[in-house]
Design a protein that fits this description.
The protein is of the alpha/beta class. It has a domain of 82 residues. It contains eight helices and twelve strands. Helix 7 links the parallel strand 9 and strand 10. The longest helix has 12 residues. The two termini are 34 Å apart.
Length: 273
């Protein structure tokens, strides 16, 4: 819970970021939530209610939801500068509040409780515990979210059949989506199909087999690929640090982007150009 130390954040901001206007924060904490554990957690997050945060109008909310045999506690920034977010876990949630713009679904078991609740949603995240049924996933999701108005889709579930991914993508207005995140390992053929469907893509998060790095990178970064002409940010998740040097050498040899920045953060490789 080191990142939940509000006093350390205060010292950092007062020492090095005096002109900071926006503090956009989200932290997830997985726990078994024994009584003592929950008391420690709540005491920690209550420090974000001090005068320091109130004076700057930096406010936070927290949510709890159960995933299988553990609990997830989330602390996140709220208005005025952050869209409302709602997480659907395995128990009922109160949705009679400000319009929700980002829905995160961990479980399909309670989706029926939220029919027509999220009509303003523009961002959808499906997590690893999301169980894809044999029925049409589009029909199920459309009952709670107008899929055609989504601009951001994140698939953090690794057991999502690719044919259902395509069915889901086909239900979204292609020209609107500018950001896609898929955590399931993808081949060049799947990447090519996604880029063809979303020709306005700007931010792309993927997972891949290292043997496919060269062919996928060449395809996405090619100046002659009309479908990826808007792409300017690539994140490759769950990789080893040595991949950064391989990608750097490939870009320089092939003379792909003329100007680029590459970083490795928390097992993710980020490339901007």
């Amino acid at each position: 819970m080191e990142y939940l130390n509000a006093n350390r954040w205060e010292r950092l901001i007062l020492t090095h970021m005096l002109n900071l206007c926006i503090f956009d924060f989200e932290h997830q904490y997985r726990t078994w939530f024994y009584n003592d554990d929950r008391q420690v957690y709540e005491a920690q997050i209550n420090m974000f209610n001090s005068l320091f945060w109130i004076e700057r109008q930096w406010f936070f909310e927290n949510q709890y939801y159960r995933i299988r045999y553990s609990n997830i506690a989330t602390l996140y920034s709220t208005n005025p500068y952050r869209f409302k977010q709602k997480k659907i876990g395995s128990y009922d949630l109160d949705t009679k509040e400000n319009p929700v713009h980002h829905v995160c679904i961990h479980s399909t078991n309670v989706m029926e409780k939220f029919v027509d609740n999220f009509r303003n949603v523009t961002e959808l995240t499906l997590f690893d515990t999301f169980d894809v049924s044999c029925d049409s996933i589009v029909r199920s999701l459309n009952r709670i979210i107008p899929l055609k108005q989504l601009s951001t889709l994140s698939l953090d579930c690794h057991r999502f059949p690719f044919d259902q991914v395509i069915e889901l993508l086909n239900s979204i207005l292609f020209y609107r989506a500018d950001s896609i995140s898929i955590q399931q390992k993808s081949t060049l053929e799947k990447i090519q199909l996604l880029v063809a469907l979303f020709s306005r893509l700007e931010y792309f998060t993927i997972n891949l087999y290292q043997k496919d790095l060269e062919t996928i990178a060449k395809f996405l970064l090619s100046k002659f690929n009309n479908n990826s002409r808007h792409l300017s940010s690539l994140c490759i998740s769950k990789q080893r640090r040595d991949l950064i040097e391989k990608l750097r050498i490939l870009i320089e040899i092939e003379k792909l982007p003329d100007d680029f920045t590459i970083k490795f953060i928390n097992r993710k490789l980020y490339l901007w150009w």
